[in-house]
C-alpha cells in the first residue's frame, strides 16, 4: 500500500513539474522598482492573474503551472506593459529595459521574441515618419506635398508589416502563435486611431480595404489545426457573415425575419485582448 501511494505521489510531482513555468525577469526601468507586476491571461472573456510579484532592485519573477499553452501579458496595476509572453513549461527569461524588451528560454518564446522585436521596429518607423513630417512643416515646406511623399514611405512600412505577419502566421499555423498573430493584426488594423493623426485616415482606409483578401489568403493556406482553433472558427464565421451582408447576399444578423423572430446577432470576433490580456501598442 505504501509503495502504491509513493508511486502515485511521485507521478503527481513529476506531472506538476512537467507543466510548471518559471519566469525570471530583469528591468532597468526605475519607475518599476518597488511596484507590483501581474501576469495576466484571458479565461472565459475575462482577465485572470496567473501570478504577481514585486520588482526588487530591478528583478522580478513569476511561477506557476499550466494545463495548456497560453499567451499572457505583464501588467503594472491596470497598465499593460505591452510585453507578450508564451506561458509554457520551462524556464523563461524576460528583460524589460528602456531600449528593448526580450523574452527567451522556450521554443515558442524565442519565436515570439523574433516577431515582436520586428513588429516594434516597424511601429517605430511610423513614429519616425511622423517626426519627419513635423520637421518638414516647421521648416516651411508645403504640408500637402510633404504628406503625399511621406504617405508613400508609410505604405512601404505597411507592406513590410504585411509580409512579416503573413510569414510568421504561416510558419506557426500549428501552435498558439499563429492564431494569436492573426487576430492581433486584425485587431490592430481595425483600430481607427492606430496611426499618427495626419496619416491615419489614409492608412486606416488602406488597411480596411486590404484585410478581407488577406484573411481569405491566410485561410486558404491554413492547416486544419489553425482552422479548428476555437477563436479562429468564431472569427471566420462572423467574417463570412459580414461579407455576405455587405454583398447583399443575406439579411443583416439581428433583423427580424418574416415570421417576426429575431436571429441571434453574430458574436463579435475575439480580440488579442481576449487572447493575450490587452491591445497591442498604437
Automatic annotation (TrEMBL):
Q: Which Pfam families match?
A: DUF4369
* InterPro entries, A to Z: DUF4369
Q: Which domain of life is it from?
A: Bacteria
All copies of domain DUF4369, residue ranges: 21-112
Annotated region described as Disordered, given as residue ranges: 260-282
Signal sequence region: 1-18
Q: Where would one find coiled-coil regions in this protein?
A: none
Task: Give the UniProt keywords, A-Z.
Answer: Signal
Work out whether the entry's keyword set contains Iron-sulfur: no
Kindly provide the name given to this protein in its UniProt entry: DUF4369 domain-containing protein
Amino acid at each position: 500500500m505504501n509503495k502504491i501511494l509513493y508511486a502515485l505521489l511521485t507521478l503527481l510531482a513529476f506531472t506538476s513539474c512537467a507543466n510548471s513555468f518559471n519566469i525570471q525577469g530583469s528591468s532597468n526601468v526605475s519607475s518599476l522598482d518597488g511596484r507590483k507586476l501581474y501576469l495576466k491571461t484571458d479565461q472565459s472573456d475575462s482577465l485572470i492573474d496567473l501570478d504577481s510579484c514585486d520588482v526588487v532592485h530591478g528583478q522580478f519573477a513569476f511561477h506557476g503551472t499550466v494545463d495548456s499553452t497560453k499567451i499572457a501579458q505583464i501588467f503594472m496595476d491596470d497598465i499593460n506593459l505591452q510585453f507578450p509572453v508564451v506561458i509554457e513549461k520551462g524556464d523563461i527569461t524576460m528583460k524589460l529595459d528602456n531600449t528593448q524588451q526580450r523574452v527567451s528560454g522556450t521554443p515558442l518564446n524565442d519565436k515570439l521574441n523574433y516577431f515582436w522585436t520586428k513588429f516594434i521596429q516597424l511601429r517605430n518607423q511610423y513614429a519616425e515618419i511622423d517626426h519627419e513630417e513635423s520637421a518638414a512643416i516647421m521648416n516651411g515646406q508645403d504640408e500637402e506635398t510633404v504628406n503625399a511623399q511621406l504617405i508613400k514611405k508609410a505604405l512601404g512600412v505597411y507592406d513590410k508589416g504585411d509580409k512579416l505577419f503573413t510569414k510568421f502566421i504561416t510558419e506557426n499555423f500549428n501552435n498558439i502563435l499563429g492564431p494569436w498573430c492573426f487576430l492581433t493584426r486584425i485587431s490592430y488594423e481595425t483600430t481607427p486611431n492606430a496611426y499618427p493623426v495626419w496619416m491615419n485616415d489614409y492608412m486606416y482606409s488602406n488597411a480596411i480595404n486590404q484585410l478581407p483578401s488577406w484573411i481569405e489568403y491566410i485561410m486558404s493556406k491554413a492547416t486544419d489545426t489553425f482552422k479548428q482553433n476555437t477563436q479562429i472558427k468564431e472569427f471566420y464565421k462572423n467574417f463570412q457573415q459580414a461579407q455576405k451582408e455587405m454583398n447583399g447576399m443575406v439579411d443583416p444578423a439581428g433583423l427580424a425575419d418574416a415570421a417576426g423572430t429575431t436571429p441571434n446577432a453574430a458574436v463579435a470576433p475575439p480580440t488579442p485582448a481576449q487572447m493575450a490580456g490587452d491591445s497591442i501598442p498604437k
